[in-house]
């Protein structure tokens, strides 16, 4: 088996489609024959669990405090004891849900929300940012997934840095707009800076134009701007704005599981498939 590929969706902005992208590319990669694990680091929102309809089951666990271990524990000293007590396989296995659409999922946990400050207390920067990476290397790699995809919070903090550090490859969904274009530029500079100061190779692998509207001139202009500015990273296919994306998320499934047959739903599905194939090529 070759090494597990990794990527993360990230942008320091809410609502651009990070979770939607992880969910849909995750299912697309599964359809391309890959074994996929999704890891949600976006705190108590637990949006991936909601997007895959396993939220009620997961919430019941959290409420009964039967959610131990969970993804937040892997960042803490206690992880060593947990794995020692349960054994590696069971410790990780306890955190994994089946989505019903192919990929496995480690959902986000409210315990992630307090982590930023805790990680700040770790003086040595490399240790502060590489907690998740150590966990993935030691416990996830042996499970032989083909692809691990992280969903990161829409803000820059120690948890998202851990995700970037471990994923190395960043997928950025953006909406067409001047603000987003600047943000994507800043992200690219940030990744370069982190790479240089810590000697890890982080790259902006794919920039996906999401929620595009082919009928507006504005959308077209920004598309051209992105293509000029990021010729090597813009995804081959834009994802149109489609009400079916929102509706299926609310039902707890992706577009691939939904029978929505509108033009935009159809094009969005194709876009996710084509971008997933391209992502495999690029990694
Ligand atoms: N192509 C699309 N067409 C229509 N709606 C979309 C599309 N992509 C995402 N959405 C909707 O936009 C909203 C935000 O998407 P999503 O939750 O994926 O963003 P996010 O970047 O993960 O947000 P957050 O920063 O809060 O984690 C959701 O309601 C989602 O269903
Ligand atoms: Mg999200």
Automatic annotation (TrEMBL):
Q: Which SUPFAM superfamilies match?
A: P-loop containing nucleoside triphosphate hydrolases
Give TM segment ranges: none
The record's section on Gene3D superfamilies has:
P-loop containing nucleotide triphosphate hydrolases (3.40.50.300)
* Region of interest (Disordered), residue spans: 242-266
Under InterPro entries, the record lists: AAA_dom, DNA_Partitioning_ATPase, P-loop_NTPase
Q: Where is the composition biased (Polar residues)?
A: 242-265
Matching PANTHER family: COBYRINIC ACID AC-DIAMIDE SYNTHASE, P-LOOP CONTAINING NUCLEOSIDE TRIPHOSPHATE HYDROLASE
User: How is this protein named in the record?
Assistant: ParA family protein
């Amino acid at each position: 088996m070759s090494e597990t590929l990794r990527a993360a969706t990230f942008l320091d902005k809410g609502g651009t489609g990070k979770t939607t992208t992880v969910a849909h590319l995750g299912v697309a990669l599964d359809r391309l024959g890959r074994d996929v694990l999704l890891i949600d680091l976006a705190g108590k929102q637990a949006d991936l669990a909601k997007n895959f309809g396993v939220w009620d089951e997961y919430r019941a666990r959290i409420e009964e405090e039967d959610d131990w271990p969970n993804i937040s524990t892997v960042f803490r000293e206690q992880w060593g004891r947990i794995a020692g007590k349960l054994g590696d396989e069971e410790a990780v296995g306890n955190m994994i849900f089946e989505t019903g659409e192919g990929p496995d999922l480690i959902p986000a946990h409210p315990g992630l929300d307090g982590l930023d400050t805790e990680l700040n207390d770790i003086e040595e920067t490399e240790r502060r940012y590489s907690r998740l990476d150590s966990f993935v290397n030691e416990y996830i790699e042996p499970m032989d997934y083909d692809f691990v995809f992280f969903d990161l919070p829409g803000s820059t903090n120690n948890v998202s840095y851990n995700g970037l550090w471990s994923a190395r490859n960043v997928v950025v969904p953006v909406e067409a707009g001047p603000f987003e274009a600047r943000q994507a530029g800043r992200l690219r500079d940030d990744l370069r800076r982190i790479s240089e100061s810590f000697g890890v190779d982080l790259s902006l692998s794919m920039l996906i134009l999401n929620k595009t509207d082919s009928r507006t001139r504005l959308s077209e202009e920004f598309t051209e701007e992105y293509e000029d500015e990021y010729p090597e990273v813009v995804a081959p296919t834009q994802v149109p704005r489609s009400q079916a994306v929102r509706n299926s998320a609310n039902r707890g499934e992706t577009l691939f599981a939904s029978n929505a047959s509108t033009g935009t739903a159809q094009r969005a599905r194709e876009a996710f498939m084509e971008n997933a194939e391209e992502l495999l090529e690029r990694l």
